Amino acid sequence: MMYLVKTPPFIPLLFPKYWWQLPAKTKELYLTFDDGPTPNVTEWVLKELARYQAKATFFLVGNNVSKFPEITRQIISEGHEIGNHTYTHLHGWKAHPEKYLEEINRTNDVIYQTTGRIPTLFRPPYGKFSRFARPAILQRHQIVMWDVLPGDFDPTISSQMCLSNALTHIKAGAIYVLHDSLKCQHKIEYVLPKLLDTIYERGLTSETLPIPSFLPEAITA
Question: Which of 37, 61, 95, 188 shows a CA-CA span of 20 to 30 A to 153?
Fold first, then answer.
């Protein structure tokens, strides 16, 4: 599996409307978790974040929200942010744009029914979606990509290498992608405590991604 741990600087220049990293004006960076909520894994991540008083953003798969509404509400109640990650983790280059947008809308609906919030942050699974779907997505969402992809999803790299990838690129403003899924459980349990230790040793903090100012704030019940 080939992927780039650190997003090259020219890519954000090609797609400036997406968030790849945020301005490093403070000591904040941004841990994000994709593919949940997942029983045991998401709850463990929440406990680790709480130990450090750290905050994160969870990009939720709608089908998992339907199955595990209590965990979804726990994410909110513990002060974290949520985003849309389609309903079935759909690959945007393989799906018809109408189907893709339908999955996004369905996920917004189930998250609203579960939490009283409509997410305004969206991350495409695999970082891929059709250019034909992009205008409609951007009407209602900020598209969030990433600066650092440690590779916890990659079965060909070890937990130690995943940690090394994560630690090498720590800086203010960075957006990290990790995964609270069963597939990634053993790596996230190894990486997250050590990553949080190092973040705070360097005087940084992990915070939630902001709600975009140019979009309506998430609706609350």
Answer: 95
Tokens at 34, concatenated: 């994709």
Which pTM does this prediction carry?
Answer: 0.94
> Which runs of consecutive H residues, i.e. helices, occur in 52-168?
62-67, 69-77, 97-115, 134-140, 159-168
**CA 16 to chain CA centroid, nearest Å:** 19
168 three-class SS: helix
The pairs formed by 199-202 with CB atoms below 8 angstroms and a separation of 24 or more are 199/29, 199/52, 199/54, 199/170, 200/52, 202/170
* Beta bridge pairs of residue 206: 29
Using CA atoms, how far apart are residues 213 and 14, in angstroms rounded to an integer?
22
Map residue 206 onto helix, strand or coil.
strand
The answer to whether 85 touches 125, Cβ cutoff 8 Å, is yes
Q: What is the CA radius of gyration of the chain?
A: 16
CA–CA dist 103, 99 (Å, integer) = 6
Determine which helix (DSSP H) or strand (DSSP E) holds 83, and give its type and residue range: strand 81-84
Q: Residue 127 is inside which H or E element, if any?
A: none
pLDDT tens figures, 131-173 = 899 999 999 999 999 999 999 999 999 999 999 999 999 999 9
* Cα–Cα dist 198/195, whole Å: 5
The pLDDT-based confidence of 27 (bands split at 50, 70, 90) is very high
